[in-house]
């Protein structure tokens, strides 16, 4: 009897470690796949009446945070940024290399790190409006980093920099965040139902 | 959307190089291209990049889309440099040779043209190396090479997955887009912006779902094969280092050292032909 109990205990432990391993594998695959999704979506754009195309880079980063959560969303975004820094043309409009980070709009690229974290945290909230608000705070942080970076490099004032690189694009970025939360929530809900 | 960042199976000596060799070459080449502004070094790098690109037998149509977009943004970048800093070259080289007065404060100088040519050269030295690395390296071999360079194999595998599934996600996007257009969803410039955003949603939703489905299939397959059970793993696609690999690594390291000495021997990373 004791022997059978020991055997069962061993099986339970194996099951636990197997589940843990399953989660690790699943998260690893999701991280890699969402990095690929980030790369592809960054090259897509919607033509707009103003002539400034709406790239899906912001949307892609936000939805990565919403679906993967802040931790794995961060890893996925870091892989994306590191591949870009290494010189692979993965950023919007096939930009690449360290010059993409230290260049005029580089602040927005490393600002994605803050944005994906806050989108991931926002996605955990029950109330979608609170989640979106946290996501928009992340976007605001990303834009502030972008404005500061551009102002520093171009040797111009903060407000002039904001007028050039942030304000014209802020509304479409807010729309991207809202869309990411709406679509991301639906996807997560569907996945949970599918897994059940 | 044209395919980009896609591995092409071929049998040239560049394809036969170990992934780690190509990674070392690519990283050193990129770093060198970013650091130096010495025209002589950049020209040497450009010639080597072009020769390697030619020898790899990569067809231009495989990289044409990426190349065209990069060229477009290079032109925008060069124009932006001139608009925001028309005397950057004069500042760097310490001399001024006017060629043509355009209007207001804008005068075209030899120094500015030379500086902007160097900026363009920097692009054209690194881009062929990046495209060469992407198109000639098998994603699994890329993971193996990262592992060989000391990166944890799980992280390496995650990066190689990102690499491998770019073409698949692109194909999915195109298929979904075409099927939605066949159902009457309009994404042209004729419709309003909200309609276009809505239409994009009709593409993104299935795209994300197809990606999630793929994630499930891959993670199940990996789980069934016992992925992640051990601290180390072997690689089916890993290649051993050959004589050619060692030669390429030695050449890259030696070339990098010589180039850096060449770049910094006079205390500046800019080659100045105006002195």
TrEMBL record, chain A:
One cellular component term from this protein's GO annotations in UniProt: plasma membrane
Annotated signal peptide: none
Localization annotation: Cell membrane
Keywords: Cell membrane, Membrane, Transmembrane, Transmembrane helix, Transport
One of the record's GO molecular function terms: biotin transmembrane transporter activity
InterPro entries in the record: BioY (IPR003784)
Pfam families in alphabetical order: BioY (PF02632)
Membrane-topology annotation of the record: Multi-pass membrane protein
Membrane-spanning segments: 24-46, 52-70, 77-94, 100-121, 128-151, 163-183
Family: Belongs to the BioY family.
Protein name, entry field: Biotin transporter
UniProtKB/TrEMBL annotation, chain B:
Annotated TM spans: 13-34, 41-60, 66-87, 246-265
Its membrane topology: Multi-pass membrane protein
One annotated Gene Ontology cellular component of this protein: plasma membrane
Protein location: Membrane
Membrane among keywords: yes
Entry superkingdom: Bacteria
Keywords from the UniProt entry: Membrane, Transmembrane, Transmembrane helix
Main localization (coarse): membrane
Name recorded for this polypeptide: Energy-coupling factor transport system permease protein
């Amino acid at each position: 009897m004791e022997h059978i109990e020991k055997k069962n205990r061993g099986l339970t432990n194996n099951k636990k470690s197997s589940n843990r391993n399953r989660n690790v594998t699943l998260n690893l695959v999701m991280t890699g796949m969402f990095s690929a999704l980030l790369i592809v979506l960054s090259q897509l754009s919607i033509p707009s009446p103003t002539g400034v195309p709406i790239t899906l880079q912001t949307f892609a980063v936000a939805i990565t945070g919403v679906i993967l959560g802040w931790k794995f969303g961060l890893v996925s975004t870091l892989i994306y940024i590191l591949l870009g820094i290494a010189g692979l043309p993965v950023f919007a409009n096939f930009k690449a290399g360290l010059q993409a980070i230290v260049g005029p709009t580089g602040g927005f690229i490393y600002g994605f790190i803050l944005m994906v974290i806050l989108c991931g945290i926002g996605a955990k909230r029950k109330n979608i409006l609170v989640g979106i608000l946290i996501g928009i705070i992340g976007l605001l942080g990303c834009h502030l980093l972008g404005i500061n970076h551009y102002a520093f490099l171009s040797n111009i004032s903060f407000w002039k920099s904001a007028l050039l690189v942030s304000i014209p694009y802020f509304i479409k970025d807010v729309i991207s965040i809202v869309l990411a939360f709406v679509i991301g929530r639906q996807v997560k809900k569907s996945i949970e139902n599918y897994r059940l | 959307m044209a395919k980009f960042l896609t591995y092409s199976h071929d049998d040239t000596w560049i394809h036969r190089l170990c992934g780690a060799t190509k990674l070392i070459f690519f990283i050193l080449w990129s770093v060198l291209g970013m650091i130096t502004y010495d025209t002589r070094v950049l020209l040497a790098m450009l010639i080597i990049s072009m020769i390697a690109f030619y020898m790899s037998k990569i067809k231009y149509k495989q990289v044409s889309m990426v190349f065209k977009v990069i060229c477009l943004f290079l032109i925008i970048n060069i124009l932006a440099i001139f608009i925001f800093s028309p005397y950057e070259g004069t500042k760097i080289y310490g001399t001024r040779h006017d060629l043509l007065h355009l209007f207001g404060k804008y005068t075209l100088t030899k120094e500015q043209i030379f500086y902007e040519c160097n900026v363009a050269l920097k692009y054209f030295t690194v881009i062929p190396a990046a495209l060469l690395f992407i198109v000639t390296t098998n994603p699994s071999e890329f993971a193996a090479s990262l592992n060989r360079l000391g990166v944890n194999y799980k992280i390496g595998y995650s990066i190689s997955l990102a690499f491998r599934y770019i073409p698949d996600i692109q194909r999915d996007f195109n298929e979904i887009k075409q099927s939605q257009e066949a159902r009457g969803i309009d994404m042209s410039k004729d419709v309003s912006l909200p309609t276009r955003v809505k239409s994009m949603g009709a593409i993104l939703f299935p795209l994300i779902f197809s990606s999630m489905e793929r994630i499930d299939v891959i993670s199940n397959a990996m789980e069934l094969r016992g992925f992640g059970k051990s601290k180390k793993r072997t690689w089916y696609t890993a290649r051993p280092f050959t004589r050619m690999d060692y030669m390429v690594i030695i050449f890259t390291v030696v070339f990098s050292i010589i180039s850096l000495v060449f770049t910094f021997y006079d205390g500046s990373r800019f080659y100045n032909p105006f002195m």
